[in-house]
Write a structure and sequence with these properties.
There is one protein chain. By secondary structure, this protein is mainly α. The chain has one domain. The protein contains six helices and no strands. α1 packs antiparallel against α6. The longest helix has about 45 residues. It is elongated and about 70 Å long. It starts with about 20 loop residues before the first helix and ends with a helix.
Length: about 230
Amino acid sequence: MTVSHGEALPTGAASSSGFRDPGTLTRSLKLFLYLGIALGALSIVSELLELQQLNEMRPTDLAGEVDVSDFQGIMAILQLLNLVVLIVLFCIWIYRANSNARQFGATDMQFSPGWSVGWYFIPIANLWKPYQAMREIWQASADPAHWQQQPRGAILPLWWTFFLLSNFVGNASFRLSLRAQTVSDLILAGAVSVANDAVNIGSDVVALVLVTRIFRMQMTRRAADAFV
């Protein structure tokens, strides 16, 4: 089935003459994923030390009286900046990967390069549409001529599960930190924050595998086309 979101779907096989090498983009994306993992690990250590201090205080003490670690505040800022860069790079990478798959001759793809990215920002639909778009990119990268018959990569459900879980736990962590009024509230918020960092690390690791696999499939296809 095809959809019309203003995109012009290809009507026949295309050459890979319009292929854009994603090497630099992929390396940049992976670099910031690695950085996200490192920052998440440091944040967990900092949060656990802070939780240890909070557990030594009276549960009824007001949150405003607690001396929050400056290091933890710095870590939060660094993680936010890294996340912004990751979002931008990942969106560009998805657009490029979809476009390249089309250049290899994949036809009748449901998702255009633009909508492969755009669905992440559409409420409700972003719970499944981006996954479908990524699955299509995977299949078209594996075998552009017969991509509909290609199985989805085993890593895809794991990647999407971590992605959704990361958003859910991150939202819960943010809301709890805003509502914290006592030491007990801070302890709960801190515990959820640790869980959030752990989930984010898992999400980044799985994303690394996904990005690397698709990149390698496309580069292998490109090398094969060069000999034709």
